[in-house]
Amino acid sequence: DNDSVFHEKNINVNLTVLPANLAGIEYTKTKGYVVKDYPRIVEIVNGSGTLLLQSFEKSFEGDIIQSTMKKGQKIIIPAGYYSSFINTRQTTLVLLEIYSKNAEELYDLDDMNGMSYYVIRKNAKQEIVRNPIYKMVNKGRKVQWDNLLSQFNITLKTPVTKQILRKYEKFSWLFKTSDISI
Q1: pLDDT class for 56, splitting at 50, 70, 90?
Q2: What distance in Å separates the CA atoms of residue 182 and residue 168, rounded to the nearest whole number?
Q3: Which of 58, 56, 51, 102 is nearest to 77 (CA)?
Q4: What pLDDT is recorded for position 60?
Q5: Residue 2 pLDDT class (50, 70, 90 cuts)
Q6: Is 162 left (phi over 0), alpha (psi -120 to 50) or beta?
Q7: CA-to-CA distance for 139 and 141, rounded, in angstroms?
Q8: Count of C-beta atoms within a 10 Å radius of residue 41
Q9: Could you tell me where the beta strands, DSSP code E, fall in the chain?
Q10: Residue 20 contacts by C-beta under 8 Å, 6 or more apart in sequence?
Q11: Is the pLDDT of residue 165 over 60?
Q12: Residue 87 near residue 19 (C-beta atoms within 8 A)
């Protein structure tokens, strides 16, 4: 139990479990949410799936990222990006999310019926389809997460919680309001 250590270092740690299932034709997912001023780190503890990121709420213009995730992968989510994690496999997806205690999570996409894209199962295949409420949005782009992680000195093999606790000063960017570009 590291609660006192995390609290002392101003770290929030969330564990999210997404079961393998469909809700109609849509895969199970997290609600689209954002941390406005602080970046986040997410590590895939178990399973695999799809990540959708978008940098806008109602303007329909901005950055959209669609990415596959697998066990052991680490992802940096910049401040101001809405995220939704989707379990597209037949195993349970477990996510470990780390961010500053000063950060505030917001769920603002309810009036837009979620993210700009949905991940569905159609004719026994996975498809990413546009949310019809978003009139005109760009296609999502891919990101090389390993390249981004190396810029922030995050190693792939060691759990991110150990890395932060061992070399806290290297992760000072995680506890400051910042603009990280991906």
Answers
A1: confident
A2: 22
A3: 51
A4: 67
A5: low
A6: alpha
A7: 7
A8: 21
A9: 11-18, 22-23, 26-27, 34-35, 40-46, 49-54, 64-69, 74-77, 82-86, 93-100, 105-106, 117-122, 125-130
A10: 28, 47, 87, 89, 90, 91, 92, 93
A11: yes
A12: yes
Closest by CA to 131, choosing from 48, 60, 39, is 60
Per-residue pLDDT at 136 exceeds 80: no
Asked whether the CA dihedral 94, 99, 103, 108 is positive or negative, the reply is negative
Name the pLDDT band for 61 (thresholds 50, 70, 90). confident
Count CB-CB contacts under 10 A for residue 70.
10
Write the Ramachandran bin of 33: left for phi over 0, alpha for psi from -120 to 50, otherwise beta.
beta
For residue 3, what pLDDT is reported? 65
C-beta atoms surrounding 88 within 10 Å: 22
Task: Report the run of H or E that residue 150 belongs to, with start and end.
Answer: helix 145-151
Tokens of 105: 């999570």
Task: Kindly report the pTM of this predicted structure.
Answer: 0.90
Rounded to a whole number of angstroms, the distance between the first and last alpha carbons of the chain is 33
Q: Can you tell me the distance from the alpha carbon of 148 to that of 23, in angstroms, rounded to the nearest whole number?
A: 33
HSE-CB at 80 with a 13 A cutoff on CA atoms is: 11
Quote the tokens at residue 149: 């992680």
What does the pLDDT look like over 95-121, one tens digit per residue?
999 999 998 877 767 777 889 899 999
